[in-house]
């Protein structure tokens, strides 16, 4: 079936493009911030991606995957004068 082959090829190309786009978390965070998503202007806590980028920028050790540790969130709150969850 020719259509099955085309659908499979399109899927692989799409996934490869998505993987390339997300290969650099800094680029992904910049894209999200430039779109105005998760800016935190409402007084709510920032997204994990924003805190992750901030922690990396300040030299705090953060994992490449998974949840941010509570001490990273505490450090962000202390640095930004925010209160707890």
From TrEMBL:
InterPro entries: E3-bd_dom_sf, Lsr2_DNA-bd. It comes from Mycolicibacterium chlorophenolicum. GO terms for molecular function: acyltransferase activity. The keyword Transmembrane does not apply. Residues 45-79 form the Lsr2 DNA-binding domain. Keywords: DNA-binding. This is Lsr2 DNA-binding domain-containing protein. It comes from the Bacteria.
């Amino acid at each position: 079936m020719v259509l099955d082959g085309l659908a499979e090829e399109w899927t692989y190309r799409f996934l490869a493009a998505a993987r390339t786009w997300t290969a650099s978390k800094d680029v992904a965070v910049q894209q999200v911030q430039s779109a105005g998503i998760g800016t935190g202007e409402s007084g709510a806590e920032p997204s994990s991606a924003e805190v992750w980028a901030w922690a990396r920028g300040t030299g705090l050790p953060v994992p490449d995957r998974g949840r941010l540790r509570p001490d990273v969130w505490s450090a962000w709150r202390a640095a930004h004068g925010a209160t707890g969850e």
